[in-house]
Amino acid sequence: MTYNNFLNQLQQFSDSDWKALFSGKTLEMLDDQQLRITAGVTPFAILKSAGFEATDPETLKQAVLDNVEAIYKRYYRTHPLSEAGFNYQLKQLANKHGAQSFITPIGKQARYTLFVDDGEVIVEDKNSPRHKYGVFLELLNPELETNPEDAFADWVNSGKAYEDYRGMNVCRYNC
């Protein structure tokens, strides 16, 4: 989820949502696309009101909104993007830049490579010093592919793109 989406969703919470959080419910991330309030313990918890000194729901709301950037970054420092969230953002970038921009023959570099920074899939071009370390699709024989967009869609939909992302970040989340 992008920071702006995260902030916008929090700002759209109703008074009853803030009251529920204040009363002990948990703010949870759902597939890196939606925030929801839930009861109990969840591995995708973003916050509980116990982490804030608040005397009422309005004070809690203000405290959360005052610290929203730190809350967002803390969540993504300890949680990788979900496969659904990663794929959603990746498909948007493919629509914007063209799937072909992320495909190359084995041993070469794609026009663009992918990274995830604080919950957002970003594109790096060849001018970036970290470009060569990003995720992209390598094809054994790209000239044999009748439609590179189909190869890209297969890479994403099969989960291989997500595996590549997790593979380059395995120590960040599991060490």
Question: Can you describe what's shown?
Answer:
This protein is an alpha+beta fold. The chain is built from 8 helices and 7 strands, in the order H-H-E-E-E-H-H-H-E-E-E-E-H-H-H. The strands form 3 sheets. The chain has a 3-stranded antiparallel β-sheet with strand order 2-1-3, covered by helices on one side. A hairpin with a 3-residue loop joins strand 1 and strand 2. The longest helix has 15 residues. The two termini are 24 Å apart. The C terminus is likely disordered.
Task: Offer a few descriptive terms.
175 residues, alpha+beta, two-stranded parallel sheet, 8 helices, 44% helix
Topology:
Blueprint: H1 3-11, H2 15-22, E1 26-30, E2 34-38, E3 45-48, H3 57-66, H4 68-78, H5 83-97, E4 103-105, E5 112-117, E6 120-125, E7 137-139, H6 148-157, H7 160-168, H8 170-174
Parallel strand pairs: 4-7
Antiparallel strand pairs: 1-2, 1-3, 5-6
Helix pairs in contact: 2-3
Mean pLDDT metric: 89
Q: Give the overall shape, derived from the CA principal axes.
A: elongated
Range of strand content: 15-25%
Task: Report the biggest beta sheet as strand number plus sense, adding barrel if it closes.
Answer: 3 strands, antiparallel
The helix-strand sequence is HHEEEHHHEEEEHHH
- Which structural class should the secondary elements be placed in? alpha+beta
Number of helices: 8
- Overall number of strands: 7
* End-to-end CA span: 24 Å
Rg for CA atoms: 19 Å
Read across the widest sheet, the strand sequence of neighbours is 2-1-3
Low-confidence stretches: 171-175
Helix content: 40-55%
